[in-house]
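Weekly structure sync, notes
Attendees: PL (lead), two postdocs, one rotation student
Agenda item 3: pending single-chain targets
PL asked that the sequence for the first pending target be pasted directly into the notes so everyone works from the same version. It is reproduced below exactly as submitted, 440 residues in total.
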Amino acid sequence: MGTPVFTVELGLASTSTSFTLDSATEGILNTGTLGDDLGYVWTNVSTYVLDEGFTFRRGATRSQGPWWRYEAGSASFTVDNLDGRFDPLNLSGPYVSGGLSELRPGLPVRIAAVINGTTETQWLGVVDHLELDYNSMTWSTVQFVCVDGLERLQAAELPPLAEAVGAGDTVPARLNRILDRADWPGDRFFDETPATTLQASTLAGTAWSQVLNAVDSDAGYVWITKTGGMQFLSRGAIATTPALTFTSTADGTGLDFDQVIISNDVAQVYNAVTLQRAEGLPVFVEDINAQAIIGQIRGYSRTDLLCETDAQVADIASWVLALYADMTTRVEELTIRPPADDTLLSPSSWWSLMRLEIGTVVRVIHATPDGRSITVDGVIRGVEWSAGVRSFSLKLSLQTNADDVGQFRLNDTVDGVLDSASLAASQPYRPSTRPVSLVA
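Predicted structure, written out during the meeting:
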């Protein structure tokens, strides 16, 4: 069948406490990764999921200033508990090990899509809590409320080290320090290109707040992948070419969408930016022309960056200004409801939807009643799927695309000139030269 079948699995007690070489289920020699079972006995409970199906989401649904702010990914589904098998108080049920119920917070949960015999994980996390409902003597349900690995990092409150460590760390090196200290079990996919180096730190506070501060100090991006790993990309590392096009036109230029929220306002305009690192000087950049266009100064400031030098802070300030000085048309949210009829959407098109990841650029073409079309590119910052019996919904949260954005560097004869009235002529992040002042 060309439409996806979603499966829900529970990761029950491990069959082994060790990593077995060359085992097809517990690990494969020389691959550097564990086998697909992740050390658990995955038990498919899809047949017990009620007809309303389930919802799972990852990523950021909002931004805090120019930075994305990621919430813990979540998933929820309700199962038929008529025979009591999903009741954690039922020690005679099938999900009991060593006299204890395995149905408790921390139980691994995996949601996968199956299309024409090909299976791919779409969400991986753990049970946060169970909500039991004995409606009557003849009916019972249990709702599984689940979270992904980000919640673990949010909950890991780490005490300060006796001495600050990591002076000169790259962002990936700092992330590894934080994750090692928090005993992070997931994979790490880190962009090794960022030039920003970080000040020493006692690594105090929640692991996730430390991750965000390190990544923000590079103006980068970080999220939890659908397979439970951590992905970090430096600024400029997101591809600018749209991977997929969605359209409301009838000319076959892309996949149909159902709803779109298009904004053209000043909510994400920052035309005067002041940033500062700990123990550093404030760095200020502004776009005077952009201020004149909307008739107001819209500022953003922050004083807690971990960059080692003020010049690195200036790089980030100019990046923020380049992205957010102008009022732009943007797509906040896009909803796609793919048809359940497998003759209307091919398996390859289904996979193109299922494989959309945070950090992917998509294009939205929206037809207007007066015969025009609006084309907007955006970066996916949040993904949410809902699936029931023969019904599907995909909601994408989008952010301004970083297309053609470069950097303005202090006293650089190519990228910018200190105390000048304008950017250098070769500066790539402006289609036209605009007055910019910088004070450090």
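Discussion points:
- The mean pLDDT is 84.
- The first helix runs from residue 149 to 155.
Action: rotation student to compare against the earlier draft before next sync.
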